Amino acid sequence: MNYAIFRSEPIMTTNDLAQIGSHNQREKKAYKSNPDIKIEDSYKNIQLVPLNYKYVKKFHELTKEYEKQHNEKMKTERKERQRNYTQMVNRSRNCVADELLFTASPKFFDNMSEEDIMKWADTCMEFVYNDLGYTKEQILHATIHLDEKSPHIHCVVVPLVKKLDKRTNTERWTISKKQYIRDKIHLSQLQDKYHERLVDAGFDLERGIKGNNREHLKTKELKKTTHYYENKTQIINKNLDKAINDLNEKMKTTKNTIFDKEYVKVKKETFDSMNKVIKETKKVVEFQPKIEQLFNEVNTFTKSHQTLEKENSNLKREVKSLVTRNQNLTAENNKLKNYIDVILEAIKKFFRKILQFGNEYAKDETTIEVKNYYGNEYFDMEDVIKISRGTTKQDELFDYVNAPNYYKERVKDVSDYDKSGDFDICR
After folding, report:
1. Residues facing 162 on adjacent strands
2. pLDDT-derived band of residue 426, with 50, 70 and 90 as boundaries?
3. Could you give the CA distance from residue 161 to residue 176 in angstroms, rounded to a whole number?
4. I need a surface site. Which of 48, 187, 313, 354 has the fewest CB within 10 A?
């Protein structure tokens, strides 16, 4: 019995899009992680919607009006809230693209001619255009891979749409997969339509089993993702350690003068080192939700396997290994989160001292930095109040965060930070 298979996988960032493009366009000389790929047969792959350059470049071409709209909006934003187009789409909750995968049970393709494969592929693309509703202009790339065990189609689409903004009562560009696949129920209905379209075209295929997660493939995908996150976490940790060590060295050379109550001289190198720490810390903060999402996905995957005992021993070992690696990754991530908290507390003290005892230039620069961290949600209103109260920048920063009037009445010369004395941001 042969099954029709259609899946949809959101692509959340342009970096992910670049990696998928590298895979789909066979840009590597060898694929050690996937022995099913025979790179010597890649010349047989068929381009349904050709693309002769990089995925990310094509993405920017397809979304140039959206990018123009964003750039116009940034002209009226405060400096600390400004983001370039790539930063905006990567930090958005929406995906940047969607990858549609079409295939069938391996035996379906046995002894199938290229003409029959093209008829099947054309039927799949008719589903993309007529049932999903994408236009050809929204197709970034579509290709049939014939250099693996089972032929399959990768169709990468950009769900760029114009939607009514109720706040401004104008139509604005956005990327929204939900305009095409609303939820899991809708996806199941689309899979029904996909099967019907194939049967109407004369293909002897059964509808894929509803709710079937294809455990072996899912496990392999999760292991690959976990491995990538492990490597990414190690790199982030290493860069953060380097930035912290460099800052500590700079702090040692200025410690005797930096907190003198009559004068403070903050070297440019110290500010640069502090900003480097903040930059690397932001990477951890931005990456952490992805690790949590992976952890939850692995937990859901393993708990849902009520028939796991019936699976073969290799799958059991893979799932067990995946859970162990995921737990280790989560522990490392929690360690980084605690590290961030320590760093941010040290930065608050550091800024507090500058606003108390620094010269006017140092105070102005620090005030800008405090506003930036507040705008990026690394400081809250309470943090800004504690940092600035009793200083010459108090009124400016109180107004910036809309602090209630009663805070101004409670201002003291010494804050909680001042009572703690010196500080060390080493681990």
Report:
1. 173
2. very low
3. 7
4. 313
Per the listing, tokens 């109180």 go with 398
The set of residues, in sequence order, having a beta carbon less than 8 Å from that of 390 and lying 6+ positions away, is: 356, 411, 412, 413, 414, 415
Q: Are 18 and 59 in contact (CB under 8 A)?
A: no
Contacts 24+ apart (CB under 8 A), 195-204: 195/4, 197/123, 197/126, 197/127, 197/131, 198/4, 198/120, 198/123, 201/119, 201/120, 201/123, 203/4, 203/108, 203/120, 203/123, 204/2
Per-residue pLDDT band at 343 (split at 50, 70, 90)? confident
Q: Model pTM? A: 0.52
Specify the length of the chain in residues: 427
Specify the 3-state DSSP secondary structure of 37: coil
Q: Looking at the DSSP assignment, which residues form a beta bridge with residue 49?
A: 142
Q: Which is more confident, 65 or 346?
A: 65
Strands of 128-268, DSSP E: 139-145, 152-157, 160-165, 170-175, 206-207
Cα–Cα nearest to 148, from 318, 6, 23: 23
**210 to 146, 184, 304, 423: CA distances (angstroms):** 27, 11, 15, 58
Question: Which residues lie across from 249 on neighbouring strands?
Answer: none
Per-residue pLDDT at 170: 86
Structure tokens at 213: 């997660």
Nearest to 427, CA basis, from 247, 272, 234, 235: 247
